[in-house]
């Protein structure tokens, strides 16, 4: 399963936005565990943060001037936030670039990490580090659907519940792209699900 996952990500041509001077750049790492049943590693951001406080996210952040490239940004931030040494990460490839509601251009990079890592959460930024089987998202067990209007289009973004964690927004969009790529899940965010309720 993991080998096919890696092959699909390596052969993928994501939608990459050209660097836009109006948007600061950021990158996140999408860590996938090297195991027969791959899991995705996520963080719960500390509630006191000015942006995305209390939200589930992939480790990552804004590009520093010293960063050689956005992969460097993703690896540096993952080390700062969850104590993941860059040498343990095999970067596989990017997913599509997105623009957050705060006007930040975010590029996700899928990376393979060992199955057992002793993550050290940076208390100032991260409240918890947890993992979810990637296959959990394959069947789209959404709790609710959020409609996001962006660049003249409506996107119907799933919100997932895994234990005590709510996974939604940009993180859910990245996960949908990944499971569609890896599992041919066919989750369509451009049209509402059958049970979506349009409120007048």
UniProtKB/TrEMBL annotation:
Cofactor: Mg(2+); Mn(2+)
InterPro entries linked to this entry: CoAse, NUDIX_hydrolase-like_dom_sf, NUDIX_hydrolase_dom
Residue span(s) of domain Nudix hydrolase: 23-157
Gene Ontology MF terms in the entry: coenzyme A diphosphatase activity; metal ion binding
Protein known as: CoA pyrophosphatase
The keyword Magnesium belongs to this UniProt entry's keyword annotation: yes
Keyword terms, alphabetized: Hydrolase, Magnesium, Manganese, Metal-binding
Organism phylogeny: Bacteria, Pseudomonadati, Pseudomonadota, Gammaproteobacteria, Pseudomonadales
Entry keyword Nucleotidyltransferase: no
Transmembrane feature ranges: none
Source organism (scientific name): Phytopseudomonas seleniipraecipitans
Top-rank lineage group of the source organism: Bacteria
PANTHER family in alphabetical order: MITOCHONDRIAL COENZYME A DIPHOSPHATASE NUDT8 (PTHR12992:SF11), NUDIX HYDROLASE (PTHR12992)
Pfam families cross-referenced by the UniProt entry: NUDIX
């Amino acid at each position: 399963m993991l080998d096919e996952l890696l092959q699909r990500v390596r052969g993928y041509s994501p939608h990459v936005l050209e660097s836009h001077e109006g948007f600061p750049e950021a990158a996140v790492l999408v860590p996938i565990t090297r195991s027969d049943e791959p899991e995705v590693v996520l963080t719960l951001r500390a509630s006191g943060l000015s942006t995305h406080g209390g939200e589930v996210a992939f480790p990552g952040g804004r590009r520093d001037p010293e960063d050689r490239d956005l992969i460097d940004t993703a690896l540096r931030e993952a080390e700062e936030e969850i104590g993941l040494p860059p040498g343990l990460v095999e970067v596989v490839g990017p997913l599509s670039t997105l623009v957050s509601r705060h006007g930040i251009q975010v590029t996700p990079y899928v990376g393979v990490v060992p199955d057992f890592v002793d993550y050290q959460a940076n208390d100032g930024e991260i409240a918890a580090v947890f993992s979810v089987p990637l296959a959990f998202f394959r069947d789209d067990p959404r709790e609710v659907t959020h409609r996001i209007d962006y660049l003249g289009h409506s996107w119907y973004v799933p919100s997932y519940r895994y234990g005590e964690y709510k996974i939604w927004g940009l993180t859910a969009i990245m996960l949908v792209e990944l499971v569609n790529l890896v599992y041919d899940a066919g989750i369509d965010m451009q049209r509402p699900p059958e049970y979506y309720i349009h409120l007048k």
